Amino acid sequence: MAFGKDKTGEAAVVRALMELLPQSKRLKCKADDWNQQLLDYGRQLRQQNQQSEDLSL
Length: 57
Fold this sequence. Notes:
By secondary structure, the chain is mainly α.
């Protein structure tokens, strides 16, 4: 499960989902929200790919 960092209703939602899916884990993002986390990760991958291409020239 993944949720943003805001606290609005979060505890109740997490509790309900954990009851339905007890094997699940809660992941906390490092960024402000998961959308930003994924955008940052994509940017990081593009930079790594660009560095690899630059080294192979």
